[in-house]
Write a structure and sequence with these properties.
Blueprint (H helix, E strand, L loop, with lengths): L1 H14 L6 H16 L11 H13 L5 H4 L3 E5 L7 H7 L4 E6 L2 H14 L4 E5 L2 H4 L9 E7 L4 H8 L3 E11 L4 H13 L2 E8 L13 E7 L13 H4 L9
Helix pairs in contact: 1-3, 8-9
The structure holds S-adenosylmethionine.
The site of S-adenosylmethionine has 18 residues, from strand 2 and helix 7.
């Protein structure tokens, strides 16, 4: 069964336009062992390998459909949790620098262990809230791509993430179904932050592996400078989201 699962991951990667060699598959295996074995942190809430690979690894790799992610030299994963999608992306894009941003310290302990045990070079773990870290000179305005999966609604994700991007960089928000209102509010928030909604891309199905998930990549590109007042204080983006009536 194990072999089949890794073959499925390879097949999905091919559908997304790249091949996974043995070394990379070995890293995914090791990462899966860590995620499934680290009960204290319950970092993904999944207990079986097949679900982990289909629901989390394949989905994480889908952001590589966006050219800005395939070419990025410096990538941030905001609200990384157990390392998704940042760790899978780093395994594939081994030359890229990756910063995993995570508010919960016990998850950061796990992330540091993953980085060490997989021998991932050029990966930093930053324990803190995005709203605070995005004010640091060594993190603000630097990244070619910011990835966000399962963290918050689009306007909130935009305020957490756009400040980290350099001009021309892309935010990829990895979403399931998204309502028209969320998308409109996200687009308005992006404009306020010096960015713009570029596209909403459907993730293709991989027969027998990744089906019926209705996953989308919302791509927001930074076009200017984010005003210094953003992100607002920790907690405010969620309480009063930009782009929503009564928000900003
Ligand atoms: C539901 S988990 C998703 C984790 C991972 N991205 C995934 O797809 O499995 C959301 C994570 O975002 C983190 N988070 C939420 N708000 C945050 C913020 N403002 N700054 C940094 N991390 C945040 C939480 O601690 C949590 O680990």
């Amino acid at each position: 069964m194990k072999r089949e699962v890794w073959e499925e991951l390879r097949e999905a990667a091919r559908c997304f336009g790249f091949d996974l060699d043995r070394r990379r598959l070995g890293l995914f295996e090791r990462y899966a062992d860590l995620l499934l074995g680290y009960r204290e942190a319950n970092v993904v809430g999944v207990r079986d390998l097949r679900t982990l690979v289909r629901k989390h690894f394949v989905d994480s790799l889908s952001c590589l459909l966006v050219e800005g992610v395939r070419r990025a030299g410096l990538i941030a994963d905001v609200g990384s949790g157990g390392g998704l999608p940042g760790v899978p992306v780093k395994i594939v894009r081994s030359g890229a620098g990756v910063v995993l941003i995570e508010a919960t310290s016990r998850k950061c302990v796990f992330l540091r262990r993953v980085v060490e045990e997989l021998g991932l070079e050029g990966v930093e773990v930053e324990n803190g809230r995005a709203e605070e870290l995005a004010r640091r000179d060594d993190l603000r305005g630097l990244f070619d791509a910011v990835l966000v999966r399962a963290v918050a609604e689009l306007p909130v994700v935009a305020e957490y993430s756009v400040p980290f991007l350099r001009e021309g960089g892309v935010l990829v928000a990895m979403k399931g179904r998204i309502s028209g209102e969320e998308l409109t509010a996200g687009a308005l928030a992006a404009t306020e932050l010096g960015a713009g909604l570029e596209e909403v891309r459907e993730v293709p199905e991989v027969p027998g592996v990744f089906e019926g998930m209705e996953r989308r990549l919302v791509v927001i590109r930074k076009m200017g400078v984010t005003p210094a007042r953003y992100p607002r204080r920790a907690g405010v983006p969620r309480k009063r989201p930009l782009g929503v009536t009564g928000g900003s």
